[in-house]
């Protein structure tokens, strides 16, 4: 916008400067010429008017008046200042002229003479080119041509017009100076006006550009946030779609664990109770005691497995704990259950998280340690938690034999469940495995978390 304004405004300003400059210069030239002519005309009229007879009734000047005029224009200050003088009658007759050959001749009245006979003072700065101005052209110098109406004293009627040419060499210099000053003043005013407007427009253009850049950046940020929201929405939809399948899978696994463990032991105990060894009166007491001991042992094993399954299903009280306490409880529970050591390293700063985030982190550590113990024998298990720029990272490592990540079934309960649980709250899940061990990692933004030392 600034460039367009500078281009268009520059053209308009130059055109305006030329028009205004020409107008002002013309007005100043006219004013200077008119004022100079009025001064000279008043001076000439003050000297000549008393010498003239009643021109309303006189058609030819007498010899005395002519000689007096000759002496007036032939010597003194007026003779040096006026190079030529004529006295016109209304019919175009020259009553008197400093050039004797012009006296008595009649010419057609030009436009200036006609205006002068209407009562107006006419002044022009020029080199004379009229038919009757042969002598003036021969002088070859700049002249101020003046037509001054001569009025009858008692009636104010124009009875004659005096035409004279004043030497204007100094006037020409003054006129050029006035022209230069007028052009300089107009150019300065237009330049200041244009520069002031340009400064305002340039600053406005910069402000608009800055606002446009800020809006573009804001739109880009909003577009990025919108895309993130869409991705989160898609992930939430995927998590919602798999929730039912995962719940059913959890129920199937729970049913399988109950069927293969406690149910088998209870069935075994029931069969032993129904055996003839216990119901036959002839069975020795020692045999009966052995059978009862075996039944009690199987029932005890069934109860222990049921308790183990319940411990895996029920979370400990983590609502009032911070991040460090949640991870520590998950690790300690795993160590107590398996007897396998786990190295734990936590960040220097803990934070208070939402209940859903605490549950997700607890289940992540619990499931990752269980998988490492089940498939890697619990070798070299480590849990590391870091906090960087409000981003919580939890890693669970082991030094087991590893596995091929590409061959993991997407419907597998452990990894699929962890991934869906973490992504459903806006986190990120990753898995790396090689022959030297496996690393399971989750990251989660700690938005709105309260940090403590």
From TrEMBL:
Coiled coil: 212-249
GO function terms (MF aspect): ATP binding; phosphorelay sensor kinase activity; protein dimerization activity
Domain Histidine kinase/HSP90-like ATPase: 356-448
InterPro entries: HATPase_C_sf, HATPase_dom, Sensor_HK_TwoCompSys, Sig_transdc_His_kin_sub3_dim/P
Gene Ontology CC terms: membrane
Domain of life: Bacteria
Entry EC number(s): 2.7.13.3
Enzyme class: transferase
Reaction catalysed by this enzyme: ATP + protein L-histidine = ADP + protein N-phospho-L-histidine
Protein name: histidine kinase
Organism, as annotated: Pseudorhizobium banfieldiae
